[in-house]
Amino acid sequence: MRKGQVALHASLSIGGLLMLFPFVWMILMSFKGTPQMLNNPTDWLPSPWRVANYSDALSEMPFGLAYWNSFYIAALNVVLTLLTSAMAAYAFARIRFRGSNALFVLFLATQMVPSQVTIVPLYLLLAKLGWVDSHLSLIVPSIANPFAVFLLRQFIRAVPVELEEAGRLDGAGRWRIFWSIVLPNIRPGLGALGIITFLASWNSFFFPMIFLNTTELATVPLLLQRFSGQHGAIDYGLTLSAAAVAVVPTLIAFLIGQRKIINSMAASGLGGK
Amino acid sequence: MAVLTDTRRPRASAHAKQKGVRTRDGWWATFFLAPQVIGLLVFLVFPLGYAVVLAFMSWDGLNPATWVGFDNFAKQLTDADFLRSIWNTVKLAILTVPLGLALAIAIAVGLNNIKGGNVYRVLYFLPVVTSSVAAALMWQVILANDENGVLNTTLRNLFGITGPDWLGDTGWVIVAIAIVTIWSSLGLNVVIFLAGLQTIPPQLMEAAKIDGAGPWRAFRSVTLPLLSPTIFFSTVVAVISSFQAFDQIFVLVNPKNNEGARTIVYEVYKLGFVEFKLGMSSAAALILLVLTLIVTFVQFGLQKRLVHYDA
After folding, report:
1. Does residue A37 belong to any structural domain of this protein?
2. Are A144 and B43 a contacting pair at CB < 8 A?
3. Sign of dihedral through CA atoms A104, A107, A108, A110?
4. Taking residues B162-169, what's their average pLDDT?
5. Contacts with B, A 200-229, CB within 8 Å
6. Which of B117, B285, B296 faces A116 most closely, judged by CB atoms?
7. Distance CA B116, CA A157 (A)
8. Do A255 and B122 count as a contact with CB atoms less than 8 A apart?
């Protein structure tokens, strides 16, 4: 290895450790008890290691339930987004119809609108439908996803038209062609979009905070925010043990699928935001 | 298809066939588009139109609404609190976008030039998949202005510097927010730039080297121009998402207690969901939308001069 390589590795490692530090600090703090934070606040290591922070956090608020809520909402978001946006993307890429271009421009334009601009009317609309304080408020409106349509349209355009024509000659209809020829050929695109959609739903906080009230309906980020609101600056150890409960399983899942996850988000650029 | 058409009256029958295909295509297009288009109309287009109407009304959500014309906009644009929230929003973008992207480019170039960079890629990416609420709580403890705030205690013990009250001070708080924002978005920008760098043909760098260009010169004259479309795209996205930042700010520093942390988005939230001034909230939201559009158009204008699209 040349000198330059060593210097590069050194500086990238220092940067990497800085990125990692908040996680390490979270874990260390999560084992500290109140007496230590009052008497020896500058000690880096917990002494004693207070494991009870975790059992206290878990018994005080239903984190297990929140995990289930977050998981099934994110999973439904993925299924509905993949199906409906692939259908729309197929229509834009492969079916000639009047107004196709105008409609596509409308899709692109709405992508520019920040979700905060529509939040008050959306709340009023969902209140009318009786969906406030229900998971429907987090599942149904997020179907509308111009970014997903745009992304999958790119993938469908790259599928050779000959494949579809072969299917047509075999007597397959539009739906058969879409389902058994187009979808299997855009699997990487669907995978990337699925990962992005799952993460966006899993970590989303603004919508759950606005739409949900009942503690039992809360998603993980919402429950964590409420938990911290009750303990916050009073008991860092307890708050951060709850944060660790929320974060560590996600990080493990990320480490297992890191290559796929990173590549998906890099390829689509926007990262679902 | 032509093979199957009737040969006896080719023109007429081809015409009929085509028309049949077209109406059936229209039907299929409707079918395939329906879920997304209905979703878009109901949950994006309709609320947007509703927001525009609301912005010209005074309404608390319960009592009858009254039409107030441009009053909401006039009030907002002369209100010191709201003007400060615009300034805070702009300040956050200025603090995060150039520095965040420059760091990301530097790291991406570094990663592109070493072997075994995947460990770093994963390390830098961890914050991207971390919930913004949890991230804000981690940083809250690091930046705390008491003995447990590890940043200030370290600054004092190692360098003898008294750190600022990161989260309590109205001036420093935006810097604290910027630090957390850069930390959480850096990894995504790194991998986007890395993907951009990998499309640059290695022959070009070798040619530059043969011509006697040093690493900095090669970076300025080869890497940067070829990366400029990616930089442009990332800048547009970074500015937009900085304008819309909410979660981390809301959890990191309750903006209720620190006016330095109140951005336009926070005002939209507070007016709408705390004070129930739905008209004022919508007007604030539309001002944010217009600001976003103006900045994006300016960027697209600059793009023509600064971005190179030919490899």
Report:
1. no
2. yes
3. positive
4. 92
5. 202-203, 205-206, 210, 220-222, 224-225, 228
6. B285
7. 35
8. yes
* Number of domains chain A contains: 1
Of A122, A174, A247, the CB nearest to B131: A247
Contact B50 A84 (CB under 8 A): no
**For chain B, what are the domain ranges?**
2-54, 71-306
Give the mean pLDDT per block of 10 residues along chain A (273 residues): 83 95 95 83 85 90 95 97 97 91 88 87 96 97 92 93 91 92 94 92 96 96 92 80 93 93 77 36
Q: State whether A98 and B107 contact (CB < 8 Å).
A: no
What CATH number is associated with residue A235?
Answer: 1.10.3720.10
Q: Is B48 in a helix, a strand, or coil?
A: helix
DSSP B192-257: HHHHHHTTS-HHHHHHHHHTT--HHHHIIIIIHHHHHHHHHHHHHHHHHHHHT--HHHHHHS-TTT
The CA-CA-CA angle for residues B295, B297, B301, to 5°, reads 115
- What gap in Å lies between CA A254 and CA B239, rounded to an integer? 27
Instruction: Give the integer Cα–Cα distance in Å for A5 and B146.
Output: 40
Burial class for A106, CB neighbours closer than 10 Å (0-12, 13-18, 19+): middle
End-to-end CA distance of chain A: 40
- List of chain A residues whose C-beta atoms are within 8 Å of the C-beta of residue B127: 19, 22
Residue for token pair 């397959």:
A172
Angle at A91 between CA A85 and CA A95, to 5 degrees: 170
Residues in chain B within 8 Å Cβ distance of A240: 137-138, 141
CA-wise closest residue to A206 among A109, A273, A253: A273
Choose, out of A262, A268, A270, the residue to mutate when testing the contact with B (most B CBs < 10 Å): A262
Report the alpha-carbon distance of residue A146 to residue A155 in Å, rounded: 15
CATH of domain B71-306: 1.10.3720.10
User: Where is average pLDDT lowest: B44-53, B99-108, B152-161, B181-190?
Assistant: B152-161
Whether the Cβ atoms of residue A36 and residue A16 lie closer than 8 Å to each other: no
pLDDT in tens, A205-217: 999 999 999 999 9
Per-residue model confidence (pLDDT) at position B6: 38
Residue B143: its chain A contacts at CB < 8 A?
none
Residues of B in contact with A220 (CB under 8 A): 131
Nearest CA-CA partner of B255 in B177, B310, B150? B177
Residue of B nearest to A168 (CA): B1
**Residue B23: per-residue pLDDT:** 66
Name every chain B residue with its beta carbon within 8 A of the beta carbon of A90: 32
Q: How far apart are CA B134 and CA B12, in angstroms?
A: 68
| Residue A37 at interface with chain B, using a CB cutoff of 8 Å | yes
Range of weakest confidence among B12-26, B101-115, B213-227: B12-26
Is there a domain that residue A8 lies in?
no
Nearest CA in chain B to A249: B130
From the candidates B131, B183, B289, which should be mutated to test the interface with A, based on the most A CB atoms within 10 A? Answer: B131
Domain extent, residue A152, equals 56-268
